[in-house]
Design a protein that fits this description.
Rossmann fold
Length: 241
């Protein structure tokens, strides 16, 4: 009996940043490398063929997604990006930015038919601005989003979900032990919650970060609120191996 095709996972982690003249202009992201390796290991155990890439330039990040268009995929494509960033942009190790819309365009139905029909799931650990979230007690079920919050993501490829470490305009925290967001993802993937449908799994990560995590040191007490956007049309169970 032939073995089922493995789903694929692409993990990109940038920890060191230098401009074209060799000047270090962004801080080293201590703790990110070990965290990415832990996530790669757990995805491998969940029957993903994992490609873990360190310190890639903006152009190399684009090229990695171009290469996925030529690969044979299983039931899912998962990508984890851990880097510096700003709203709608991931920073390469050369300090140049690659727009998320560019990544999504590469994986569009026209350019990448190989992954058109399978769910594509992104977890993005990067700042989306410079604001600090001091945390509040929320007593309502929901609020009205800022009009521009997801304007860059209206052209998601079909069958795509994107989860961000923080809300638009805010920083995403990282220390030598890892990030709030990806540590919460790691905890969920190691536990029974991995069997949940993706939207419930992401909501569980929201809860974990919102209620169980806060910054230490210089930003003692600051909070973080992950959020996600999706155009999936059905429940999917990407980690219930």
């Amino acid at each position: 009996m032939s073995q089922p095709r493995q789903s694929r996972a692409l993990v990109i982690v940038n920890t060191h940043f230098c401009s074209s003249n060799g000047e270090v202009v962004l801080g080293t992201r201590r703790g990110a490398k070990r965290e990415a390796e832990q996530l790669s290991n757990i995805l491998s155990r969940l029957n993903y063929k994992v490609k873990l890439m360190h310190n890639k330039t903006a152009k190399e990040i684009e090229d990695l997604y171009q290469q996925e268009c030529c690969c044979e995929h299983g039931d899912y494509f998962v990508s984890i990006i851990s880097s510096h960033g700003k709203e709608g942009v991931i920073i390469g190790c050369d300090t140049e930015g690659v727009k998320l819309t560019r990544i999504f365009q590469i994986l569009s139905a026209e350019k990448c038919p190989a992954v058109t029909k399978i769910p594509k799931i992104f977890f993005i650990q990067a700042c989306r601005g410079t604001e600090l979230d001091q945390g509040v007690v929320v007593e309502c079920d929901s609020g009205e989003p800022e009009p521009e919050c997801f304007s860059d993501y209206l052209s998601l490829p079909p069958q795509t979900a994107v989860m961000f470490a923080c809300s638009p305009g805010y920083v995403a925290f990282l220390n030598i032990f890892g990030s709030m967001f990806l540590q919460a993802l790691l905890k969920v993937l190691k536990g029974e919650e991995r069997h949940l449908a993706l939207n419930r799994l992401m909501t569980r990560i929201n809860w974990e970060v919102a209620f169980c995590c806060q910054a230490r040191g210089t930003y003692e007490g600051c909070k973080e609120m992950p959020c996600f956007v999706t155009n999936l049309l059905q429940d999917v169970f990407p980690f219930s191996a």
